[in-house]
TrEMBL record:
<feature type="domain" description="SGNH hydrolase-type esterase">
    <location>
        <begin position="18"/>
        <end position="199"/>
    </location>
</feature>
<dbReference type="InterPro" id="IPR013830">
    <property type="entry name" value="SGNH_hydro"/>
</dbReference>
<dbReference type="InterPro" id="IPR036514">
    <property type="entry name" value="SGNH_hydro_sf"/>
</dbReference>
<dbReference type="Pfam" id="PF13472">
    <property type="entry name" value="Lipase_GDSL_2"/>
</dbReference>
<dbReference type="InterPro" id="IPR053140">
    <property type="entry name" value="GDSL_Rv0518-like"/>
</dbReference>
<protein>
    <submittedName>
        <fullName>Lysophospholipase L1-like esterase</fullName>
    </submittedName>
</protein>
Amino acid sequence: MADDSRNTRRGIIGSYAAIGDSFTEGVGDLGPDGRLLGWADRFAVLLADQLLVPGVPEGPHGNFRYANLAVRGRLLDQIVEEQVPRARELAPDLVTFCAGGNDIIRPGSDPDDVAERFERAVADLTQSVGTVMVTTGFDTRHVPVLRHLRGKIATYTAHVRSIADRYDCPVLDLWSLRSVQDRRAWDNDRLHLSPEGHTRVALRAAQVLGLDVPADPDQMWPPQAQRGTLEVRRDDIHWAREYLVPWIGRRLRGESSGDHVEAKRPDLLPL
């Protein structure tokens, strides 16, 4: 396990770039203007509020700059080919790197092989940017379909933590974030976080860097009424029809939800 003493504020962070897939793009978290937010956007605001760069301000968050290169549906090799070179070119103070999840959930994938490719990308990034924060997988014990892949996800998560040790990377450990085990942390598709789920991840990311946060990401959810068996079954049938079947169909056709989607924030810009 990575030494927690490493997960402290590492000087002033004046620029941040996020790379990854739908999780980092922010799917499941629509803002009031209809555009995606997500944990990385929310994390950027926390960074900008508390780590303003001295100098002439460029808006309400000073001259902090943020890029989000993530695109939904991207596999690890696509992220390495499309996003890692851009992140190296931007050379921000901080990069968050979450990738491999879409590879792991594919039939026949090998978490050891995915981890080897992930490590090569981490080694590449650490040569060009200030700090690389890596992200583990979620504990999927309560997630329909994905709970059957829990062993593979756990293996990959162990690899990510080992890689973080070798390259001195702070770790955004989602496996241990108990609050996202609640179904209210997830969108209706059960594959992406809800706005509250994204918020909790952003708070945890800020904690990893030693920032003071306005709320505990692992705070208890308000109590709710127990759901009956028929209600749960009805919800499961609706979910399978509306989300699972289309998802399987795209996989069979070799399609991705990210086809023809571009990064929402390809440049380091002020918030």
